[in-house]
């Protein structure tokens, strides 16, 4: 990856992390851990130029779509959409408030740029399958990116969707699996062991590419490779750290669904901006 | 008695058609005119009759195998791409197994998905309780924004399918396995939110939807021979329900009997009670499945056993009429 590009995307990931912390402190509730783990991926998706999107025309027919199947991580999506210009950044502090454009889980009827309503785990990937089928019917060249959680893979519906995606040869569907090794009650290996995760996706007929989900060059290479795979869907298994960017959250259970307090906010923001 | 304007829309053919068959045939016809219609199924296409659409338009038919949750959410995804998905399976699976998917993937975002579920009620017969949908209308009625329809015959079914293909928003249609007499002819007009008063009389109001309407008609004709004339309402549109028609009739008769091949909790009977309690408190006797699971048996045995055959309707009216 070009050094200038990498720096820009890193800076944007920092901004996204700052936005996440600020909006969650303001709302007093929400999901920091699983949002922060996706910040680098979302920086890449929205700011590398890889997606065919237009903030001025969020409904354009042939656009690339994102389905945040792990819908609770919406703070990272809202941050990316705001930074990209889908709506004014001032909306971020209204997260989860009554009447807000930014609901606690993604709402396609309220937020410009949100392509599918999600929040009940396991459903988004199926929605993405439907979108991919529709895109192929109309020969739209667009791609569907489905962001899935590793804990979410406990849900049987994920595997129904996975089976159908390879059955229908949906090479316009790219799943990005946020493998941060944690769910709410503890480590995924202790709560409901889903290993061998990579073997599972392969056995369901997907092309699997494993990456460090915080390495922008690896994110770029994997998506580039994924876009050239024919006849099968691709799962990019992104190894990540839940809470990445905030030192006291990283890899810690307990930061799934708890917003940082006012006192914790300052330290969190300093961490995000990588200041000592 | 049958009002003059109704005589014009009643069929004089002696024909029986299963509403699931009428659905399958109409969907295949509509597929020609409307290229955005797609059909989805879960390995039951020869039972739900989506196989007819599948044969004509194989590229627009998607079988999801035995995975109803996936199908419903995929239908939602297809609708976001401008398609009009008709998603079918048995009513038990559409409403119970995929309940959260119907609620969150379809109803909450108010997507343009048409869930046409067959094999509703105990009248499906021998398969028994696991396959007899008796709470599907109750579940769907409670979903905000969901249109819930229960056509009584082949003609009404075709009109329903025509209408929902144009209507923008989620719809649930409950269809039947076994054939029943054709009641309406082609000049019948269906409208979402409207019921039809097929017969008029002042002694009681009988309100039915779906499979039981032909049974209620038989009962009403027999009651008329016995000197008891009733208002017989076919309430195809369970949600939104035709409140005015219900209130007006209850005001006149003072006694309402609801009949459905569904639990007496939460379906047509529940909806009628809600309307009347709020607007015109009236005694309502609910015939249907009395908060029980179904069981194996022949359709007619089961209808009698659950107390909503013609004899039971007649007996109920006679016992309650003043």
Please outline the major beta sheet of chain A: 5 strands, parallel
CATH superfamily of the largest domain in chain B: Thiamin diphosphate (ThDP)-binding fold, Pyr/PP domains
Mean pLDDT of chain B: 98
Radius of gyration of chain A: 17 Å
CATH superfamily descriptor of chain A: Thiamin diphosphate (ThDP)-binding fold, Pyr/PP domains
**Largest interface, C-beta within 8 A:** A-B, 35 and 30 residues
Query: What top-tier CATH class of chain A fits best?
Result: Alpha Beta
The CATH topology of chain A corresponds to Rossmann fold
Could you characterize the architecture of this molecule?
The complex is a heterodimer of chains A (276) and B (322). Chain A has 276 residues and is α/β, with parallel strands linked by helices. Chain A has one domain (3-272): Rossmann fold. Chain A contains ten helices and five strands. Chain A has helices at residues 3-27, 33-36, 39-47, 74-84, 124-137, 156-167, 188-191, 197-203, 216-226, 262-272; strands at 65-68, 144-149, 173-179, 207-212, 234-239. In chain A, strands 1-2-3-5-4 form a five-stranded parallel β-sheet, with helices on both faces. The mean pLDDT of chain A is 97. Chain B has two domains: 4-11 and 188-320, Rossmann fold (3-Layer(aba) Sandwich); 16-181, Thiamin diphosphate (ThDP)-binding fold, Pyr/PP domains (Rossmann fold), CATH 3.40.50. Chain B is 41% helix and 20% strand. The longest helix of chain B has 15 residues, at 19-33. The chains are: A alpha/beta (276), B alpha/beta (322). Chain A binds chain B through residues 61, 67, 107-109, 115-120, 122-124, 126-135, 137-138, 140, 156-157, 160-161, 163-164, 167-168, and chain B through 38, 59-60, 62, 64-65, 67, 69-83, 85, 100-101, 104-105, 108-110.
């Amino acid at each position: 990856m070009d050094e200038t590009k990498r720096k820009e995307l890193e800076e944007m990931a920092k901004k996204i992390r700052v936005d996440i912390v600020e909006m969650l402190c303001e709302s007093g509730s929400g999901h920091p851990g699983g949002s922060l783990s996706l910040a680098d991926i979302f920086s890449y998706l929205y700011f590398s130029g890889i997606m065919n999107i237009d903030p001025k025309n969020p409904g354009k027919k042939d656009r690339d779509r994102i389905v945040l199947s792990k819908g609770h991580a919406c703070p990272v999506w809202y941050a990316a959409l705001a930074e990209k210009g889908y709506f004014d950044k001032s909306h971020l502090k209204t997260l989860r408030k009554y009447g807000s454009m930014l609901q606690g889980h993604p709402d396609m009827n309220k937020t410009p740029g949100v392509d599918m309503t999600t929040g009940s785990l396991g459903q988004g990937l199926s929605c993405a399958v439907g979108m991919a089928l529709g895109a192929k019917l109309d020969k739209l060249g667009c791609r569907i990116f489905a962001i899935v959680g590793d804990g979410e893979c406990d849900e049987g519906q994920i595997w129904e969707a996975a089976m159908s995606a390879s059955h229908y040869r949906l090479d316009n569907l790219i799943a990005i699996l946020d493998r941060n090794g944690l769910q709410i009650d503890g480590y995924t290996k202790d709560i409901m062991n889903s290993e061998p995760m990579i073997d599972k996706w392969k056995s369901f007929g997907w092309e699997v590419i494993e990456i460090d989900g915080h390495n922008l060059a690896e994110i770029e290479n994997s998506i580039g490779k994924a876009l050239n795979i024919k006849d099968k869907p691709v799962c990019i298994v992104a190894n990540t750290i839940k809470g990445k960017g905030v030192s006291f959250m990283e890899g810690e259970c307990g930061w799934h669904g708890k917003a940082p307090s006012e006192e914790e906010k300052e330290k969190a923001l300093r961490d995000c901006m990588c200041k000592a | 008695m049958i009002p003059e304007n109704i005589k014009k829309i009643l069929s004089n053919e002696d024909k029986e058609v299963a509403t699931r068959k009428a659905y399958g045939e109409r969907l295949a016809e509509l597929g020609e005119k409307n290229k955005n219609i797609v059909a989805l199924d879960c390995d039951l296409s020869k039972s739900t009759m989506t196989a007819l659409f599948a044969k004509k338009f194989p590229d627009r038919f998607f079988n999801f195998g035995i995975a109803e949750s996936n199908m419903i959410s995929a239908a939602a995804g297809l609708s976001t791409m401008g398609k009009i998905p008709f998603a079918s399976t048995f009513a038990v699976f559409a409403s119970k197994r995929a309940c959260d998917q119907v609620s969150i993937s379809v109803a909450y975002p108010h997507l343009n998905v048409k869930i046409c579920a067959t094999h509703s009620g105990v009248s499906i017969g021998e398969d028994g309780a696991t396959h007899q949908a008796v709470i599907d209308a109750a579940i769907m009625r409670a979903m905000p924004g969901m249109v819930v329809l229960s056509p009584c015959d082949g003609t009404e079914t075709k009109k329903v399918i025509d209408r929902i293909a144009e209507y923008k928003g989620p719809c649930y249609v409950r269809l039947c396995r076994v054939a029943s007499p054709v009641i309406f002819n082609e000049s019948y007009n269906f409208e979402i939110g409207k019921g039809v008063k097929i017969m008029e009389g002042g002694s009681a109001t009988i309100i039915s939807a779906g499979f039981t309407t032909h049974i209620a008609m038989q009962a009403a004709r027999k009651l008329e021979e016995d000197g008891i004339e009733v208002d017989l309402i076919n309430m195809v549109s369970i949600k939104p329900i035709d409140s005015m028609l219900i209130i007006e009739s209850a005001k006149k008769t003072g006694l309402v009997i609801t009949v459905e091949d569904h639990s007496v909790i939460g379906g047509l009977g529940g909806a009628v009670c809600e309307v009347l309690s709020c607007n015109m408190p009236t005694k309502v006797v609910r015939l249907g499945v009395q908060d029980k699971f179904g069981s194996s048996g022949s359709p007619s045995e089961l209808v009698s056993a659950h107390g909503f055959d013609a004899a039971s309707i007649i007996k109920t009216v006679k016992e309650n009429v003043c």
